[in-house]
From TrEMBL:
Belongs to the short-chain dehydrogenases/reductases (SDR) family. One of its GO terms (molecular function) is oxidoreductase activity. This is SDR family NAD(P)-dependent oxidoreductase. Residues 37-223 form the Ketoreductase domain. InterPro entries: KR_dom, NAD(P)-bd_dom_sf, Sc_DH/Rdtase_CS, SDR_fam. The keyword Oxidoreductase applies. Keywords: Oxidoreductase. PROSITE patterns: ADH_SHORT. It comes from Nocardia aurantiaca. The lineage of its organism: Bacteria, Bacillati, Actinomycetota, Actinomycetes, Mycobacteriales. PANTHER family: DEHYDROGENASE/REDUCTASE SDR FAMILY MEMBER 7B (PTHR44196), DEHYDROGENASE_REDUCTASE SDR FAMILY MEMBER 7B (PTHR44196:SF1). GO terms for cellular component: membrane. It comes from the Bacteria.
Amino acid sequence: MQDISGLIHKIKHGLDTQVSLARLRRHRTLADAAAGRIVLITGASSGIGRVAAAKLGAVGATVLLVARRADELEQAVAEIEARGGRAVAYPCDLTDFDALDAMAAKVLADHGHVDILVNNAGRSIRRTLDQSYDRFHDYERTMRLNYFAAVRLILAFAPAMRAGGDGQIINILSLANLYGGPGYAAYVASKAALDSLSTSLQAETHTENLRFTSIYLPLVRTDMITANPVYQQATANALTPEEGGQIICDAIIDRPRRLAPVMGRVTALLDSVLPERADSIRSARFQHGM
């Protein structure tokens, strides 16, 4: 079997290196970037979304937490408020578009606008082609949360961002969008759709100070990977929720167009120049159980 643990360690190190270099060059802090601003984070009841919310609340941002689990959201709000921050919970099943639209309308009624939108909520699924012939619904439900829910939120909050001449939309994607993800076709395709959408919308809004940021995260040690026996072997080298949450905060400080390990960028370049070779590498890893 391919040493997935070692590979993930290299990827993680590459992302750490890029973020560290950005930190050395920067001239402002998270407080400079977020204090007094309204930040909405989906998938904020646990994992990297909850960590990022806590960090942002600690520096003076008003953090709006969105997820299905109301009890956990309220716990997160209480933790932020106990440290002197301001947070509001908006429980919502983002796959219920009527509920999503109502939540977005309430956010705008309560706050007037959102300065930073973090599309972090996501659904992952591992199912190969031969296991998927009669499971079209897997693709539908994955696209519904990972892509269409994010699109509805972008459409809801972008008008005020554009009118104000400022804003940031951060999309949490997967490193598999650069490497390829055999076995995860539905998941990777849904994230790729969001990435492509952002590329087009960034071109339309390039002169408006509205920044679309794509973060290509490697494996993160969250509940999403617990059901995957392959990835359970690699959790020691996966990003912790603390590290993943800090990367979101780094993206808010630096406002990069894309944030990804150098190794991932090189692989994407190889894929564009030598796709057959890239396909053979992906296939070999897939055949060996990655």
